[in-house]
Amino acid sequence: MSYALALLVELYRAARVDGSRLMQLGPDSRASDLLALANADEVADLIAMRDLAVEKLLPRLPSGPVATGSTFEGSVDLNADADLIVGGVLVDFKATQGRARPDGSRAAALTRAEIDQLLGYVLLDYSDAFALHSVAIYAIRYGHYRAWPLDELCAELAGRPIDLAAMRQEFAQVVRVELPGYRRASIVDRIQRRVATS
Q1: What residues does 154 pair with on adjacent strands?
Q2: Strands 134-139 and 89-94
């Protein structure tokens, strides 16, 4: 059922779904046909990731309110939702294969873009509705969980302490006012260049 749900979510998230297995279904397909799209290896992979999360993730999570797929006040400005928020910790799940090592094995990896993504979610919570105090990444294929207190992470990245409330308001200004103007100007510029070259 998890695999089927992922296929359905793909319809919402992906720019194109031409290659999706959902395209194998016809108008008379039933729920059993949808569930049959996952092969035995994929089901085993999902079960292994679930079992690893029970062992490695669940014991690390704080107590407190739990929310999945949460949207933020700023999600109307940028299409973004959180994988998991629990007890003030925003957890983003990463299912990548990781980076290749010289010996052919693979290792979990963390990129600056992934850290920026986490901070973007935090900044989209304009009014701090989720009372976030930490962000975390869970590499689901490796069972690796890493969390950072927001004040320490922001200070490390900025080289100085950050007023998160003020930063959220500045971010809202950029996303709501400056970015739409930039996008409009960019679109107009592209149209004008096409017209000039035709």
Answers
A1: none
A2: parallel
| Residues whose CB falls within 8 Å of the CB of residue 122, separated by 6 or more in sequence, listed in order | 90, 132, 135, 150, 164, 168
Tell me if the pTM is above 0.90: no
CB 66 within 8 A of CB 84: yes
Would you tell me how many other CB atoms lie within 10 Å of the CB of residue 27? 4
Angle at 6 (CA atoms; ends 42, 89), nearest 5 degrees: 105
Which of 8, 5, 65, 1 is closest to 35 using CA atoms? 1
Interval 68-111: pLDDT, tens: 988 999 998 888 899 999 999 999 999 888 788 888 888 888 88
CB 92 within 8 A of CB 82: yes
94 near 138, Cβ under 8 Å?
yes
- 94: which 2 tokens? 């990463």
Burial code (b: 16+ CB inside 10 Å, e: under 16) for 134-148 equals bbbbbbbbbbbbebb
Amino acid found at 165: A
Token pair belonging to 176: 């709501």
